[in-house]
């Protein structure tokens, strides 16, 4: 079992933060506004750059279109570079238009399907300008009632749409097809699980891979098994990291179940997912409804680093030996030893070796950045779904 070494693994862990984590957000009941939130996509990038400046591990920012539509995407990309980060995945949005009530690319009405596909193609145009590799597709499409629409016809429409977008991809560009068990549709989602996403990706070709959003499964689902399967098949394209207690809670990753995150990262390490050549993108997809946003992102990056560090500490040789010997408890103990290690001092050293503060959260708080944005920014915007 060959595994990447500790420092290389940590160096390779690049966490992409989502632009929408920096704006105001909430639940369907209330959006709480906070002081100092960004007023436009440029300011979201500026905030994301703070997360990278203090953690050294968040070098890219995902955009969501149209939430982050600007007249000049080249200027946004230049702004990102000036701030020390880069633009990452482009997330398409075909879920916030009245036309999409009965679906977007799977809608029975060809006019609506055309409109949705045109948006996806426009996202690829934007990728050409921003230099983004990944187009993240999540479809809210589905049905609420048995018989409402034909399950198989919807799959046909989906594959037609995906094929058109796939054909438009340039060299080095990818589709990340995200699945979600339920919500907003409650009877069927058209891409409800990794199997459906995987089948579409296989039909499309090598530039289509699966995105695992950790909040999109039934309770009790063994997500690390899915991760192992997808890595084995070469089709794990990305994570949307977040944590959940109940459904798609979009809480900070590693907050609800740090052990699950460790188990996932163990499979990532085991499957070569920390080697950039494998092409796994580690993204956060979170909303900070009640906590300060930049700090929420810093905490999430730190949580992901801690889980990864523990996974990198797993003694691969000892594990293999115990597994080969059928030593059930011994094998389990190897994993638990790594999980129970306090990796915070190791991470503090890793940071200091890179000229970063040992404690990114304390350093950010002491920097005065928050007071500055509160003073400068009046009338910050909401994240997309509250808008
Ligand atoms: C859907 C989802 C998807 C969207 C994001 C805002 O629940 O996870 O990734 O793009 O939330
Ligand atoms: Mn997601
Ligand atoms: Mn989600």
TrEMBL record:
UniProt keyword annotations, A-Z: Cytoplasm, Isomerase, Manganese, Metal-binding, Rhamnose metabolism
Gene3D superfamilies: Divalent-metal-dependent TIM barrel enzymes
SUPFAM superfamilies in the record: Xylose isomerase-like (SSF51658)
Keyword Metal-binding: yes
GO terms (BP aspect): L-lyxose metabolic process; rhamnose catabolic process
Domain of life: Bacteria
An example molecular function term from Gene Ontology annotations: L-rhamnose isomerase activity
InterPro entries: L-rhamnose_isomerase, Rhamnose_iso-rel, Rhamnose_isomerase, Xyl_isomerase-like_sf
Record-given protein name: L-rhamnose isomerase
Organism whose genome encodes this protein: Planotetraspora thailandica
Taxonomic lineage: Bacteria, Bacillati, Actinomycetota, Actinomycetes, Streptosporangiales
């Amino acid at each position: 079992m060959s595994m990447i070494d500790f420092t290389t693994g940590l160096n390779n862990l690049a966490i992409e933060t989502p632009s929408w984590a920096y704006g105001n957000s909430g639940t369907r009941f209330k959006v709480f506004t906070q002081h100092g939130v960004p007023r436009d996509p440029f300011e979201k990038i500026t905030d994301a750059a703070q997360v990278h400046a203090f953690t050294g591990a968040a070098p890219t920012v995902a955009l969501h279109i149209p939430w982050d539509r600007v007249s000049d995407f080249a200027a946004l990309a230049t702004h990102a570079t000036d701030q020390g980060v880069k633009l990452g995945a482009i997330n398409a949005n075909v879920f916030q238009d009245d036309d999409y009530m009965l679906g977007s690319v799977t809608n029975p009405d060809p006019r609506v399907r055309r409109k949705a596909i045109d948006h996806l193609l426009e996202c690829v145009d934007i990728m050409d300008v921003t230099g983004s590799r990944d187009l993240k597709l999540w479809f809210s499409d589905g049905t609420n009632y048995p018989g409402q629409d034909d399950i198989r016809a919807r799959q046909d429409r989906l594959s037609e749409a995906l094929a058109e977008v796939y054909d438009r991809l340039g060299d080095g560009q990818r589709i990340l097809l995200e699945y979600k068990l339920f919500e907003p549709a409650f009877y069927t989602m058209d891409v409800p699980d990794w199997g459906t996403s995987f089948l579409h990706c296989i039909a499309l070709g090598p530039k289509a891979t699966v995105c695992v959003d950790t909040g999109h499964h039934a309770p009790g689902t063994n997500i690390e098994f899915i991760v192992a399967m997808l890595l084995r098949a070469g089709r794990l394209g990305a994570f949307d990291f977040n944590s959940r207690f109940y459904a798609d809670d979009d809480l900070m990753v590693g907050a609800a179940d740090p052990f699950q995150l460790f188990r996932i990262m163990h499979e990532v390490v085991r499957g070569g997912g920390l080697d950039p050549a494998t092409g796994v993108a580690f993204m956060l997809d979170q909303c900070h409804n009640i906590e300060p946003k930049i700090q929420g992102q810093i905490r999430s990056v730190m949580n992901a680093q801690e889980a990864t560090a523990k996974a990198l500490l797993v003694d691969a040789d000892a594990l293999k030996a115990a597994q080969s010997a059928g030593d059930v408890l011994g094998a389990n103990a190897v994993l638990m030893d790594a999980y129970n290690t306090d990796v915070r001092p190791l991470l503090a050293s890793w940071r200091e070796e890179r000229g970063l503060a040992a404690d990114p959260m304390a350093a950010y708080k002491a920097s005065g950045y928050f007071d500055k944005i509160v003073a400068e920014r009046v009338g910050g915007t909401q994240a997309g779904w509250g808008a």
